Amino acid sequence: MAIRIATWNINSVRLRIETVSRFVKISRPDVLCFQEIKCREAEFPFSSLKEMGYQHFAVNAQKGYHGVAIASRLPLDDIQTQDFCSKGEARHVSARICSGGANFSDIEIHNFYVPAGGDVPSVEANPKFKHKLEFLEEMKSFFASPAASSQNRVLLGDLNVAPLEHDVWNHKALLKVVSHTPEEVERLISLFESGGWVDPIRNQAPEPEKVFTWWSYRSPNWLLANKGRRLDHIWVSEPLSGAVKKTEIFKETRGWDRPSDHVPVIADLI
DNA sequence: ATGGTTGGGGTCCAA
Question: How many whole angstroms separate alpha carbon A53 and alpha carbon A32?
């Protein structure tokens, strides 16, 4: 049985629930992971998502800001949240997907919304940047246990870092722009390598191909100017690397009415 | 170097 997993920073799930429905009709992911739901759990659109075929949920919500959720056609269990950096912010939720797949048993999925980090790339001048770096370091520790890389795991979400040269529209111009600074990139790559993760998006579209998942609202003419960044990621653990058959950046949602500034990233596992 | 846009909650903060 194949399983399609998608991640999407939706930038208010209530405002864009019809946009979600439109995407689901086209792409029909089995597991749909959101970041920036921006609502309390009581306000989360469970019933709309149930109508779209999602009966199972793992939600870590807070009022107004951040917030992550997993909506799934397959049963979820062992739902957990971790308060990275102990700030009481809803930036992580994990669950085990009972997949019934042929090439893998259950999958542990970790959905992250990494802090954006503010505007100034200095830990002294900008506490948000410090928070972001510490958050990435805690993520590394979290996945550092010896058995971690032997599990069927997926780490996905808005990681708010574009690690590679061609993950941004202009590498040199963005070296001092938060999301692509050497300090962030170093920490994200350290997390990636120490956890034994695999990046199927980049395996399918190696450098120097440009791959973006986000286009700023502030940049007019997003499609022609194409000043994007790859901030959203789907990583899998080594045992799952052979199970990823295809990935996709679902770019077209960025051109829809009142879009999120992020687009869905999809991985198909068999 | 600057300003550009969006969303939530409430007349400003985060992205």
Answer: 11
